[in-house]
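Quick start: read one record
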Amino acid sequence: PPGPKGTFLIQNLLDIPKSKAWFAYTSWKKQYVTYPSNEGNLIFLRVLRKNILVLNSHKDTIAFLEKKSRIYSDCPQ
């Protein structure tokens, strides 16, 4: 998935801003437009072996959290 490349051990730990993160996520959205289907709305980060998915679209966030939550959640069914 698109997103900033990280370093060997800490991956993207230093890329995540400590304040006003939405500015960085918006600029990454413009920078990582690679797939016409999602128009750069998905950004993938990895920090200390944990995956982080940043959704830059309200529409995609609603679809991800409400409509497809059973698919993406870690909860047992």
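The two ends are 27 Å apart (CA to CA).
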